[in-house]
Amino acid sequence: MQPRPDPGRRLVHPLAEAGPRSKGRVLVVHPGALPPTVHRHLADALPDGVGVDVLDLQGLGEYADLAASGCLTSAASVESLARRLTTEIDDRVPLGGRYVLVGWSFGGVVAHAMTCHDLLPRLPERLVLLDSIAPVPGYKATVEELEPSLLVDWFAMYLGARRGQLLQPAPDSRLDRLDWVLEAGLQTGALAPGTGLPGLAKLYGRFLDGLRLNSHLVDGHRPAVSPVPTVAVRAERSLLAEQGPLGWDRITTAPLPVITCPGDHYSMLTDPAAAARVAGVITAQLATTLPRETQR
Amino acid sequence: MDNTARTLTAREIEEWLAGKVAARLEVEPDSIDRDQYFDDFGLDSTEALVLAGELEAWIGMELQTTALWYHPTISELAAYIAEERAGDATAA
């Protein structure tokens, strides 16, 4: 039993309309896991008059089909996804309008690719990467290469964020097992009553399939250096404990500020304090006056 | 309980599914429409996957990815599973 690909799942989710005296637009590239409307918290934290649209990769047939089928032999690539999304920019950003391109997680990889190779008719003021890992050597890894305890931790973050809960293992828990996730999930309400280990394992399997898909796409990607000034925002409890830009400094134009926001990789999208922090970063970018060279 | 070794009727599977859906929706099993599309029960994708995993453990077999797409109601899915299991038993 797998959820059907939703034929009605849209590519573009408008969350806020730009006002008559537009203060700019924000386009967010969203890869899935959480619903695209999760960025409503960010939209609400931005000033009135800033338009916000979410570009949902799950609304792209080729990406959604990959996710549903688990088939990794498709011709889809980061570049093909980026090209497909860039056709939306003209529709959403009026001529002469200023916009910030945001990408969360794998969405950051696609957003970065959109700014390269002259794909965009108009470059954004800034590229803002939300807790994203660069697709560069040293940061590419398959699911099988990652520590099981790390994967289970990520899964727990995801489950918790869906219900606004933080799942913590008991002191004696085996961190590479789902048992503690089940117990913590039931205790906090992140999992429905009666959920058992077989059901949780099925969900975990789908979670890993999603990671495998993104890992496969990243592995085949050879990124260029983006000409767009970039800011990296990292969650306090990020996917990786390593500090710093997670490889993005190699494929972005220096300097690359790295800013921290509250929450973990998933709850940074649902936590109002985190949304406020990210909104502040974006607002500052829209307020910056840039030289003509960034406009095509 | 793993039911790999015994025959399950479509009715039994239907009752199990209705019971599980009812529990998640916090309603009585009798109120669950067996001919309603799964999508219309308001279960999100994660809840559907959890239910799928528990169903697979109960029937003792893995369902094909497309099972729900082609059999999108409790009654249709139950009939499909019962038929598949009967076919597997015959072939064994």
The topology string of helices and strands of chain B comes to HHHH
**Count of helical stretches of chain A:** 8
What composes the largest sheet of chain B?
Answer: none
- First-to-last CA distance of chain A: 48 Å
Give a count of the beta strands of chain A, DSSP E runs of length 2 or more.
7
The parts of chain A where pLDDT drops under 50 for at least 5 residues are 1-5, 289-296
Number of strands of chain B: 0
Q: Give the rounded overall mean pLDDT of chain A.
A: 88
Summarize the SSE layout with pairings.
The complex is a heterodimer of chains A (296) and B (92).
Chain A: E1 12-16, E2 25-30, H1 40-45, E3 51-56, H2 61-69, H3 78-92, E4 99-104, H4 106-114, E5 126-130, H5 148-162, H6 179-188, H7 197-219, E6 230-237, E7 258-264, H8 272-287
Helix pairs in contact in A: 3-4
Chain B: H1 10-25, H2 45-59, H3 67-70, H4 74-91
Helix pairs in contact in B: 1-2, 1-4
Task: Describe, in plain words, how this protein is organized in 3D.
The complex is a heterodimer of chains A (296) and B (92). Chain A has helices spanning 40-45, 61-69, 78-92, 106-114, 148-162, 179-188, 197-219, 272-287, and strands spanning 12-16, 25-30, 51-56, 99-104, 126-130, 230-237, 258-264. Chain A is of the alpha/beta class and 296 residues long. In chain A, strands 1-3-2-4-5-6-7 form a 7-stranded mixed sheet, sandwiched between helices. In chain A, helix 3 (78-92) packs across helix 4 (106-114). The longest helix of chain A has 23 residues, at 197-219. Chain A is globular. Chain A starts with 11 loop residues before the first strand and ends in a 9-residue tail after the last helix. The relative contact order of chain A is 0.16. With 92 residues, chain B is an all-alpha fold. Chain B has 4 helices and no strands. Chain B has helices at residues 10-25, 45-59, 67-70, 74-91. In chain B, helix 1 runs antiparallel to helix 2 (45-59). The chains are: A alpha/beta (296), B mainly alpha (92). Chains A and B meet through helix 7 of A and helix 1, helix 2 and helix 3 of B.
